[in-house]
Amino acid sequence: MELGLVGLGKMGGNMRERIRRADHTVVGYDRDPELADVHSLAELVQTLPAPRVVWVMVPAGAATQATVDELGELLSPGDVVVDGGNSRWSDDEKHAEELAAKGVGFVDCGVSGGVWGLRNGYALMYGGAAEHVAVVQPIFDALKPEGPYGAVHAGKVGAGHFAKMVHNGIEYAMMQSFAEGWELLEAAESVTDVREIFRSWQEGTVIRSWLLDLAVNALDDDEHLDELRGYAADSGEGRWTVEAAIDNAVPLPAITASLFARFSSRQEDSPQMKMIAALRHQFGGHAVENAQR
To answer: Which residues are CB-contacts of 121 (< 8 A; sequence separation ≥ 6)?
Structure first.
């Protein structure tokens, strides 16, 4: 299968490589000419055989909207656009409607896996009409982890990004729990080796997880996280999760509290946020801020 891929940053670039390793052809476009295979979206569309599939991996909001608008002018009836970025689920309905008016299909896909996805595969949550999902299925199969799990047709348009939004909200709360436990252990006078306590939890405990493994990796790199400033950004999906909870009258006390804890990191050098920052860097390659010396 031939695929157009727009956006070749940390996620998009690794996705291109994983898809190529599955023996599909990927034509990539990025504003950075050092990363791109073609010079423009127009050239990308002209290169692909019809019916075309173009996967978009650009920042949510204005960048995604501009890309969808341009593709809407370039693509033909029967083509399909996949938004694999972290778009707000409600934007998907708008994009699908705009493209449907031109006979172009639309699939939204939440993607999880960060910088480890190239090796381990990407968890995929996609939404859209069955006929559009079927067109993209070979690419989903190439990107997902080995085995029967790791990918799901979550529902109609918007369901994929809604599922990824909730996934990220849960992730906020799990990271916050590890961060709070780590700070309490560091504060206890009787505890002498917090890093090895975390390492001991990797086997035989009910909290063993990939996040715990990543926490141990971070502590191996910087035992007391002295090199990090206690600041952690939020991508926006935690906020959207809380807003959706309000809209649906669903109580989310743990996720909401973890979001507010991120906000607190901008007011002081929070020890808990050092762990949050370390975990985000470990699994997603997100930028960290070094401690001031």
So the answer is: 18, 113, 143, 144, 145, 146, 150
